[in-house]
Each structure stands twice: as C-alpha cells, then as structure tokens.
Write a structure and sequence with these properties.
Distance between the termini: 62 Å
CATH topology of the largest domain: Protocatechuate 4,5-dioxygenase, Chain B
CATH architecture of the largest domain: 3-Layer(aba) Sandwich
Number of helices: 13
Low-confidence stretches: none
Shape: elongated
CATH superfamily of the largest domain: LigB-like
Number of strands: 22
Mean pLDDT: 94
Strand content: 15-25%
CATH class of the largest domain: Alpha Beta
Structural class: alpha+beta
Length: about 450
C-alpha cells in the first residue's frame, strides 16, 4: 500500500485552495524575471510563509523553467523545526502531497542514502515540517516529471553530508535544493548587516556559516562543501528580509536566494582553451598541414621552430589531429597528457595520423588535396565516480564529454566529436568498450572512467 505525506502547512504558509495557490506561485515566478543560461546544480532558498519569503524564493526557482526537461530528481535538504533529529531524516513515503497534486519520492536514491552514515528513515521528522513542504509548489510549477528525495536534518556533519550527496549530484539530471532562512529577529538594519556577512561567506564558498546566521546553516555549509568539490560558482539572486515584504522592521527574518552552476575545473579549462585557439588557430592548422605534407611527401616529422611560431605554442599541451576525406575518417592520433610543446605535439600527431593509424593505409600524395584537418586541444582529465553502469550513463554529459575508460591494460578514448556519430549514451559507451577491446555487454565496477573536454578547430571554418 502506497504511503502519502500530506500537507501540514497548507492554509498557513501558503494558500490551501489549488487555484489560488497556482495563481500566487505563477505570479511570484512571473515577477522574478528573466531566463538563466546555465544549468543550476544547487539552490539555496528560504522557507517562511509565502507573503514573507516567496519573492526571494521565486528568484531561485525561475531559472529552473529553462531546464525543466533535464531535471529528473530534486534532493531537498532542510532543517527540522518540530522534532529533534540526530543526523539526517529520510521519508518512507511514496508521495508528498500539496494542493497542486502529488510528487513522487525517489525510493531508489532514498534507499541508497539510508545505507550511509548519519541517514535513517524518520517519518516523524517530516510529518509537520514546513522547510521542505513550502518548496514543493514552486517545483511543481517549474518542473515536469520529477521525483524528490526529502531530507530533514538536525545535528549533522556537513562534510559527511556533502560526501554522501556528491555521487548523486554528479548526475546531470539531479538538483539539490537547500532550504534556509537567514538571520532571525534583529532590527531591519541589523539584519541587513548580518545577512550581508553571510552572503559574503557564500560568495567566497566558505563553509563557515553559523547557526546564529541561519537556521539552515548545516545545509548551506554542506552545499558550500559540495560547491568546492564540484567547482560550482554561487550567484546571489535576492537578499531581503521580512521588513521588505510583509512585516514590521523592528524584528525581522532574513531571506536569500542563490543558484550554483558549473564553472568548474573542466569548464574553466575549456574556456581558456577556446581563447587560446581563437588566437592561435591559423598557426596550429598551418603546423598540422605542414606536418601532413612533410609526412606524406618526405616521410619525416616536421619540427616547428620558435623562430616561425609564437612562444605560447611551445607551452606543454595535449592534442589530437583528425584527418578526413570526403567527410569520412582517414586517420586520428593524439596525446592524452601534455608531455611536450603544443606545436610539437600537433606536428607529431599529424605525422602519425597520416602514416601510422593502424586502421588505415598511409595517406598517399595524391590524396593530400582531399584531406581536411581538425585539431582538438584537450583539457585535463576528471575522474567520474559512479555506482554502476546505469549511474555512469546518468552522469555522462552527451555531446560535451570526451571519455576514457580503463580496465587493467585495456583502454579506450572517444573525443567529444564522436557524439555526432553516436548521440545515444549507451551506444557511445558500448562502442567505446569495443575500442578498448571489451565486449559491449561487459561491465565491471572496477573500470576507471575519466571525462575531459576539447576545443576543436578545423580548416575552412571561420
């Protein structure tokens, strides 16, 4: 028999009538403004009555509308206000109900977390708790076809909490919503000063928020540790208090809204490589073309000189050189790690792609006019933590990630450009296994997986 967690604060914190609630939430979202380009991974939102804090909350929820088809699971993390909780309380309910309908609970993820230190099923902690419930109508308005993992906490360790949530947050379809109000019961001016101090710590991604600064300090600190782990950047969207919305300015509660999105290590490296490629594209392609001709016509490796090319091309870098003829692959060789100057790496990879790609006969002189060249510059490699093959597929970013898989001495690599031929995640992985010398049906959780990004430049492209 299915279990339901029914609303506890409908009619108190928000409207109980479905049409009224729908209209009010829509109004808050409309007033919140425009689109948000990046994919949010975490939000910090307040949890007071809607007349007080919904204008701030709506600023964080509005960006989700632009990603509604991508977010399938929302982890809700909020403090317990009604029941003492030691650790983190999960729910055994199958559905959480609001006046706008029912939201399914992700039972599989809940079970996985229940096996972790500090987590356990505790329905009493959820029964009357408002910190998560008030988030649901907003989620119901901005997302479609999603599940939730509700977590109410008391005394907990933010580091351990972050470590437990990390494997799930690494999935590209999962979002964390941290429910937290800010300062409590200062005067308006005092609250503004206190909340600006909290906002500064969040901006610095410093997990040192005290409970005098927020009733949701544990959740915020967990989110900031996750931001460090995942290289996420917080952006503040709102910082107000009840004196700005519906209350007296003599004794106020502070509310803030933040969105965290990926500007992580790979993203930063990719942006830097794109800038580099924009400046040195012509030089890199000239090196690759000269190296191709030297290989095919003279059988030798071209060695670019500092006298002929800019100094930054002699910093270490990793590259792949791809040759195509009539739109078909004609050779592709590259380097996984930056062991030599980029100019030398491109030259030697062009030589090897022309003469020593075992899948093809050496390029002949008569083909040179038909060969097109692409140079891919590689970022560093980021290990992908996963629980099983399905979990790995959920975490792979189709069309973006290059992947390396390694099992003992067997290894395979696909550049991100391979997604053009294999857009389905499972097909991509199965073909990568074949390249590594594995059966497509083979799987072992001992397989090591790394992701990377590339910036590709081609001849005859602006």
């Amino acid at each position: 028999m299915e279990k339901y967690r029914n609303p506890a604060v409908a009619g108190l914190f928000y409207a109980a009538a479905p049409q009224t609630l729908d209209r009010e939430v829509s109004g808050y979202l409309q007033a919140a403004g425009g689109a948000y380009e990046k994919m949010p991974k975490m939000l910090i939102v307040p949890h007071a009555g809607y007349q007080y804090s919904a204008p701030a909350a709506a600023r964080a929820y509005r960006p989700l509308r632009d990603q509604s088809g991508r977010i399938k699971t929302v982890i809700l993390l909020g403090p317990s206000h009604r029941v003492p909780v030691n650790g983190l309380a999960l729910s055994s309910a199958d559905w959480f109900v609001t006046p706008l309908g029912k939201v399914p609970v992700d039972r599989e993820m809940t079970a996985g977390l229940a096996a972790r230190k500090g987590f356990r099923i505790n329905d009493a902690a959820h029964r009357d708790e408002h910190s998560l419930e008030v988030q649901l109508p907003f989620l119901q308005k901005v997302l479609t076809d999603f599940e939730i993992v509700p977590i109410v906490y008391g005394a907990m360790n933010p580091q351990e909490t972050a470590e437990a949530l990390l494997p799930y947050l690494q999935r590209d379809d999962t979002l964390l919503v941290v429910s937290a109000d800010l300062s409590h019961y200062y005067t308006y001016e005092e609250a503004q000063a206190a909340d600006r101090e909290t906002a500064a710590k969040i901006k610095e991604v410093s997990p040192e928020i005290g409970y005098h600064q927020s009733c949701g300090a544990g959740g915020i600190n967990s989110a900031l540790i996750l931001a460090q782990m995942m290289h996420l950047r917080p952006e503040i969207l709102s910082l107000i208090n009840s004196g700005d919305t519906a209350g007296s300015r003599e004794r106020v509660v502070g509310y803030g809204a933040w969105v965290f999105a990926g500007t992580g290590g790979l993203e930063r490296e990719t942006a830097a490589l794109a800038d580099y490629a924009a400046v040195y594209k012509k030089d890199l392609l000239r090196i690759a073309r000269t190296a191709l001709e030297e290989a095919v016509l003279h059988g030798r490796v071209f060695e670019p000189s500092r006298d002929d090319y800019p100094d930054p091309l002699f910093d270490k870098g990793a590259s792949f050189v791809t040759l195509e003829k009539n739109g078909e692959l004609r050779g592709c060789i590259g380097s996984l790690l930056p062991r030599r100057a980029t100019a030398l790496d491109v030259a030697e990879n062009a030589y090897n792609a022309a003469l020593h790609d075992g899948r093809f006969a050496p390029v002949a002189a008569g083909e040179l006019g038909e060969i097109g060249i692409a140079v891919s510059l590689l970022t560093g490699f980021e290990p992908v933590a996963y629980e099983n093959e399905e979990d790995l597929l959920a975490k792979v970013n189709a069309g973006v990630d290059g992947l390396v898989i390694r099992d003992g001495s067997r290894q395979g690599l696909f550049l991100p450009s391979v997604w053009k031929q294999l857009p389905d995640k499972r097909d991509f992985l199965n073909n990568l296994k074949l390249k590594a010398g594995m059966s497509p049906s083979y799987w072992s959780n001992a397989i090591k997986v790394y992701r990377f990004r590339t910036v590709e430049i081609k001849e005859n492209e602006n």
